[in-house]
Amino acid sequence: MIIERIARPTLTAVELDHGDELHFVLAGGQTRRIRVLKSGAEVEQSNLATLPKPGPLAKVVLRMYLCLSIDGHEFSIARRVGSPESFYSPWEFFGLRLWFDACTGLFDHLKEDHGSCKPRKHVRLAVQDASQRICPVLLHPWCPLHEGGLRIEECYQGSDCWMGPYFGVDAHGGLDINHPAGTPIWTPIALDDHRYFNSIAAGDNNNRWRGTRRWADGSTWVLQVHHLLRLRVKEGGPLDAGVLLADAAGVHIGSHEHSHFVFGVIEPGAAESDKILLDPWILFWQMYQDRQSVMRR
Q1: Rounded CA gap, 4 and 27, in Å?
Q2: Does the pLDDT at position 52 exceed 90?
Q3: 264 contact partners, CB below 8 Å, separation of at least 6
Q4: What is the bridge-based pairing of β-strands 170-172 and 111-114?
Q5: pLDDT, tens digit, for every residue of 175-214?
Q6: Do 163 and 110 fall within a single domain?
Q7: Are 194 and 253 part of one and the same domain?
Q8: CATH of the domain at 33
Q9: Residue 136 belongs to a domain
Q10: Above pLDDT 90, what percent of the chain?
Q11: In which domain, by residue range, is 14 found?
């Protein structure tokens, strides 16, 4: 199958099967032809054999790999989940920036019982023109940022990055960041609408928030934060970037006070049910890039 996309001011999320080809038109008009050859995953490190059962002491690291051709040139790339390398930098080829988000091979080793994160096709990617940002505006920090980047040891039990092996056996459908109850959550971008979709007040076991932003290029971003203590703004309606949104990390938190972040993209013309979930780290990567840019000025 050939899938055609044109670079736009926000990144493009796409899922591909082996043999599919993405024709991606860069901002300068050149077309890059990206063909997925194969993908898979393997367990690189595990102590589960030494444990009586999966649990908080489990330490599992998995390696995902992707073989692809770009304009006839073959490349192999790999990345890890459940380790510090979970917080990776994107690849750049011939003016194309590529995020290797997921492959279904990971689910040969992990279940999907802790939040949706399995791609519908063999491979899930985010692609951009390498000269562009992930979106046309600076991103405000979503929460206080650790100096030097995110740390895997501070992702709940030390594994709960996006698709990380929660308790060693479940792909984690979000990015957990440990911080004290009451930690501020800000809006990283301006939002068109926002509200709780689960709340203690409504009888749910958690306070889970969702905000949406419809971009001028036709795409929609969906942002979520879970485990909120309280909202600091009234639900519904638009919000500017950088608004103090909530106090975090205080409801249904388990063994560590933490917030759970989720990021999804609805491509132009797609239905909400076709939303493609991506690693929230992509947003945090851009936040760190933006902080460095501001400090250099």
Answers
A1: 14
A2: no
A3: 221, 222, 224, 275, 276, 277, 278
A4: parallel
A5: 999 999 999 999 999 999 999 999 999 999 999 999 999 9
A6: no
A7: yes
A8: 2.60.98
A9: no
A10: 95
A11: 2-129
